[in-house]
């Protein structure tokens, strides 16, 4: 873009967003389309994809993985950018969810439509309990401790040889209908995305953001930040546990490797690529990164190298994240004006 | 020796500095006065080149767009495109607003870091000078910067700027949070710095009272424009200025 | 949270006795005592580093005093968590401003308005029931000097200049409908004309029954408000009383101004 | 006795692994998650030089260090500079680079246990009845030396101080004439060289394997954080705590629980001292 | 004619992955050169599709491997699955998936856990497509390692056993069982097994302990490459105990000698099936070893080489007898297989689909234990195929 003397680029909001008593004043069909368009694209897109992919069953199952990673990424994004707790322990949530769900399924014989919700709620509660003593930690210190949790959990299970030890829990029930297998993850992502987006814009969400910005001032406002953080961790870890529970039924197996670092790192990478702090961005990031990783599978050992290079490329060339960039381009237009 | 012409700064679509020109001769103290959001800090950042850095960071994060226009020259050379570190090497040192000291370094270390551009002898000599102006610092050399009280931090920030051997010292709200006695002493020292160390000083303040008596020339900023300009007496006699900056 | 109504007590609203605090060898406070009566405006002055902010921190629970007692409405609050103390109606501003930088100015107030105390009391001037938080927030900002119809209340706090941030600090306290507000240098960084609007505001607060402790270096303005001041030096209280009298005490002069020359300047 | 001797060796080993990471993080607040990769890279390069060009150990090591330093500097200059200040992006970007290097090496044939560096000095002796090989003694000596050097560099030299300033407040450093981008390049290069040095000293004890990269990274991060950011004493202490915790569990509970105990030690240390052993981060951040 | 696609989910960056890959490719090349596989009336070639499952890489989740298997089946249209997954967890985890997709699979490298064929035996109908042609841990221990140890003990009068294992399931199980049995057989087992986490690089504490306790044999069960460090340390410290690798990935490879600069001499290693080190178990054995060496430049490496090679031949045999690629038919044919292979007679247990082991190549699949002597791998067990005798290091002789 040529630098013009005595001119500067101006950005102007495209939509006429007027905030009046909590609703957007919507003036015309055009406006409505403008607002609803992108959201509808995402929702319909996700819902239709499995149908489009019926001839490529493998990609259908990849889509399921995309959704599972999306849940994790959204959970990370929520905790990191709306509460300020950067958790590198996504794998802990996955593992807890997977183990709870699979054990309930295998040991008690509960059907998966029962075990998944149970794992989500109780897994979330369990994770929150584990993280409770760490809530006063800040920044990297929290990040590192959270990173230790999945490592520790895997080690403990291994050392004590409980829950099937290194072999994992075998014989977990799989999805009986492929409809459920494909749509349950998608539906979870959409519903939870909607829920979280509402939440962060509600007053509670603002307070959480306040905790991130400046917890001292929140304390001075008479709010117990530990309770807030615990609540946030609960929400986020429930999401992670849901992902884990889904995963163990997709794989028909749960085991130690559910605590693997990949489940912590990939969602974070997706968040960075997609645009952190946008909640939709992480989903977008997963929609790109996971299939890319699958496409590269044929490369064999070179795959990870290629993947890392692509990832770095995204981060370097769109460091703000795709979603942030796209949203800006969509919502604003630019023009040159004289100074 | 230092001259800025037609400075304009936009934050996105907001005009923060509007065609501001300013000059500072050798061994002069220039005052820039203005109420809140008049654009004093913006001006200081622009002069020191920090604005370039802010713009770079904003671009990286994809946020708002900052536009800079205008010419700045220092000792006959154009510096408006020079990086802040280059300007600092040339002698333009900013003591930023809100006391940005290094919180995890001790007071002494803060000062040592400040002397990055100085020679060893200069550093030693200036260190003593700083302790002379702010004796309070001398007692607490080993305390971490972040633990200091507001006023102590302010003193430290000014001291640190001095350590960098400025030829042109830019002070952004130096009086903020200082006790009256120190305020007074600081004003006196600014004059001393100018005279003894052959340094020019530009001070941005909203609390004009202690500074006004020592300036050679002053500007009043309002909403990003320099509305009044003149020598010390001129400003002091201007009824509007008197009203706004000295109260009644 | 439902607190029992405090017992009607006829003692002082806030009673600080013999509070001391050291930071690894630094005696930041030593045996400071004072009483604060309801409705007063009390000034706290002292040279830089004399322990004023530390005193504020000790009262509001941000640091734990080593010894002594702090009673508020007859209840000992020493060692209580800061949020609990704030919930009792004892709030403070921060000397180094701590707004929520990523939020617009008015959204900054949503957070105190969300607190249990604001919900109970309805926020500043609220009649017990809290209305729409956004509206209340903008109302409060307007009262405190943000022009309602300008863009300022809606700007992101990170781009606000010092003056507004100072007021935002105060607004954050007021949103809680506090009983005591401790202001740590709210006047510094304000220009004369802004000060002109702040002084009446403080007076109004006093009239509304809010008790104020003001830590200040701007003595002129402080003395127009405060009925009583205490002076700290090296963590010790060296004087207490009516402003004019206190300023005449030689120890204060010595500690605070050093020389006559400076004094006359002030 | 053997507990003490091997405890010390293990601790110094950990400290060495962490040095480069601590340096970069301590002085430029850049979590260099490619640390482990640089470690392995140096080892591999040295091996390559020795075996391909049959140069002597010293030259090979020097060459490897040089290249690693340049790689580190380029890494910053080309990539990390664009995400500077966005901590999470920095982590992911550097991790991705590290991944590319490590897996690239693996693709290039670095697999299995066949890549080894020879010890500088062969043979072993016995200290107080405990057999110890010379290389391990060398590790302890060099480790102590390097820690001392680094401490001196960071606290006493102009460059070190400038780096430290930049880490704490970049904008303030800019006003003092410190060119933050150049400084970060310097610190990355230095950090990489230190990672490499550690590799050259430690690798003869084992073999050159990709997995070591991940292991070293985790240990380095743990030591650095447990010690408290930017604190040298802290890092050394942390290395000793973790090091001895490992050896002790090895003896008492069995190596089986080594990792469990080390992890628990880390978690507990941080819960008790939220900014690490010698860090003041939390207090500083909470000072109002 | 259309090729028959063999999907191989292998962890190709690791010994137990690439050994299988190389052996399978070798077998396929031989078969295709000879005209291919007779399916009904037409001759069809084999085609190999390898996917890197990374399951041996520490920290890579098993779901990666599962996705790899899925990809082979759903996208690469693999007709049969050969080789892996390699890691036990991954192989176990893949069972339901393979059963659901009704794919015949022959496991031939990695996975030693008895749980695999026991699971098959438990629901034979569901898992009837799953075979394993390589050895499994129970036989290895009771049929080979224990007898070999007893031999050793008798010959040199040794009876103090010290156990060092890696912190993985199969090693812990194996180490535990060996300890128990050896105790029963009158040996002194010194303390509990010393367990090392995967990736450990310092074994001095354990070795010192062994020395202190006057161990005479150190039983090692580790599949990580760092084990070569253990042997270097063992040699440096001159620990007077013979290292006996029940599973010891590092020492199986021909490159081990160079990696330890000869310090690994005297180490014993079990390579599960004959043919993974040169010997004359059957006429085919050396033919295989030579062919492998010719194609890949090294002797057969890990313990999955000869079995993976045989897996292809067994499959060919079964397909030809079934006359079709139909999973049920091929599975039935595999069940009835009786083939003289590289490591003896190949037959599957009718219930568990596990290859039937034996000490005699004429009766079943034989194993191999060798010792490093002068840079060579000398087979010392079972006696029927041995090419040399066990030696003690000089510092052990009194
Ligand atoms: N990063 C930014 N983005 C957008 N607007 C900004 C930014 N920084 C400053 N502004 C706006 O520019 C105007 C001038 O701000 P500036 O900080 O220069 O004022 P000031 O005179 O220094 O005020 P104070 O005395 O309170 O510090 C203000 O209206 C402020 O809101
Ligand atoms: N956490 C701490 N560790 C060490 N010293 C501290 C700590 N907190 C405060 N101090 C020291 O205690 C003294 C009192 O600090 P305080 O902030 O209370 O001063 P103040 O009266 O508010 O000064 P100012 O007017 O400059 O704001 C100072 O000298 C300060 O350096
Ligand atoms: Mg300003
Ligand atoms: Mg203070």
From TrEMBL, chain A:
Its main location: membrane. It is found in: Cell membrane. The chain crosses the membrane at residues 32-52, 58-76, 83-104, 110-132, 139-163, 183-200, 231-253, 265-292, 304-327. It is a multi-pass membrane protein. The keyword Cytoplasm does not apply. This is ABC transporter permease. It comes from Dethiosulfatarculus sandiegensis. InterPro entries: ABC_transp_permease (IPR001851), LivM-like (IPR043428). The keyword Membrane applies. GO terms for cellular component: plasma membrane. Keywords: Cell membrane, Membrane, Transmembrane, Transmembrane helix. GO terms for molecular function: branched-chain amino acid transmembrane transporter activity.
TrEMBL record, chain B:
It holds the Pfam family ABC_tran. The lineage of its organism: Bacteria, Pseudomonadati, Thermodesulfobacteriota, Desulfarculia, Desulfarculales. This is ABC transporter. GO terms for biological process: L-amino acid transport. GO terms for molecular function: ATP binding; ATP hydrolysis activity; branched-chain amino acid transmembrane transporter activity. Residues 2-248 form the ABC transporter domain. It comes from Dethiosulfatarculus sandiegensis. PROSITE patterns: ABC_TRANSPORTER_1, ABC_TRANSPORTER_2. Gene3D superfamilies: P-loop containing nucleotide triphosphate hydrolases. Belongs to the ABC transporter superfamily. Keywords: Amino-acid transport, ATP-binding, Nucleotide-binding, Transport.
Automatic annotation (TrEMBL), chain C:
GO terms for molecular function: ATP binding; ATP hydrolysis activity. Signal peptide: none annotated. Residues 14-259 form the ABC transporter domain. Keywords: ATP-binding, Nucleotide-binding, Transport. Gene3D superfamilies: P-loop containing nucleotide triphosphate hydrolases. InterPro entries: AAA+_ATPase, ABC_AA/LPS_Transport, ABC_transporter-like_ATP-bd, BCA_ABC_TP_C, P-loop_NTPase. One of its GO terms (cellular component) is plasma membrane. Pfam families: ABC_tran (PF00005), BCA_ABC_TP_C (PF12399). It comes from the Bacteria. This is ABC transporter. It comes from Dethiosulfatarculus sandiegensis.
TrEMBL record, chain D:
One of its GO terms (cellular component) is plasma membrane. Pfam families: BPD_transp_2. InterPro entries: ABC_transp_permease, BCAA_transport_permease. One of its GO terms (molecular function) is transmembrane transporter activity. It is a multi-pass membrane protein. PANTHER family: ABC TRANSPORTER PERMEASE PROTEIN, BRANCHED-CHAIN AMINO ACID TRANSPORT SYSTEM PERMEASE PROTEIN LIVH. This is Branched-chain amino acid ABC transporter permease. It comes from Dethiosulfatarculus sandiegensis.
